[in-house]
Amino acid sequence: MIEYLPRSKQHTELHLTQFGIEECIPSHFFGPAIRSHFLLHYILEGEGFFEVDGNRYRLQKGQGFLIYPDVVTYYQADSMNPWSYCWFGFEGTIAELLLKQAGLTRECPILNYNEDDKIYTYLKLMAESKGNHKAREIRLTGLLYLLLSLLAEYGPVMPTEQKESRAEIYVDKVKELVETNFAQKMTIEDIARIVGLNRSYLCSLFKQQMNTSIQEYLIRMRIHKACEMMENVELSIGDISRSVGYNDPLLFSKMFKKIKGTSPKHYRSENR
User: Fold this and answer.
1) How far apart are CA 95 and CA 103, in angstroms?
2) For the packed helices 199-210 and 163-181, what is the interaxial angle rounded to 10 degrees?
């Protein structure tokens, strides 16, 4: 069973390109060849080997291997106990980042998962989603996210050399929260709780990565958005103030002058 899917115009961050399952005959092989997307194989039964970048990995049930785009690979089923596997092809702007969170990289392409049969369950749900004509793409993308979250949950602890990228992940989460919720009454404690880190540690991490505090970043984001809104002449200064999270116009003017060096009214007249 195999199904190929068209490239998604809606889910550019992450989407399936194909999925399937195969019971291989003895010594069945593929390659050496490259793929144009990520391809994750998970072994359901049997054994075989996978070759990439000069390394050969002997694999069996409960393991899997990740193929990187545009990387030459070769894999072959065992001659006596050939494997059967399921696979998931996918791509997107955050695909590599999510794989790293699961401990899967080009340098570490081997998956180990013996917790349960959820990986195969997700494949079956993908196949059964054919009945969802209107919302199938959403369903498939959701299942792919569930699959990768499962691998991240039970994946290995990230190596020391990847700690910096882990810090960047948390900082990016803070930036996304601020950029999408700048108009809300959101405290640093709220942000730390959502991100899942201690407040002091998160503030220290953000300061180290961004060379500014979370509070300062939030203020500057609000003022930046306020400046954009001033191009709309139908919005009053009060409207803009409330729209960027300041119900008190005086506080808004104070923060605006601190960042821009002038009052909102004067800034608008000068830049009209």
Assistant:
1) 13
2) 100
DSSP SS3 for 1: coil
CATH of residue 86: 2.60.120.280
CA distance linking residue 66 with residue 106, whole number of Å: 8
Average pLDDT in the chain: 89
| β-bridge mates for residue 142, sequence order | none
What's the whole-model pTM score?
A: 0.61
Query: Distance between CA 98 and CA 148 in Å, rounded?
Result: 7
- Cβ neighbors of 208 (< 8 A, separation 6 or more) are 167
Domain that holds residue 23: 2-154
Which tens digit of pLDDT belongs to each residue from 87-105? Answer: 999 998 889 989 998 999 9
Query: How many structural domains compose the chain?
Result: 2
On whether both 176 and 202 belong to a single domain, the answer is: yes
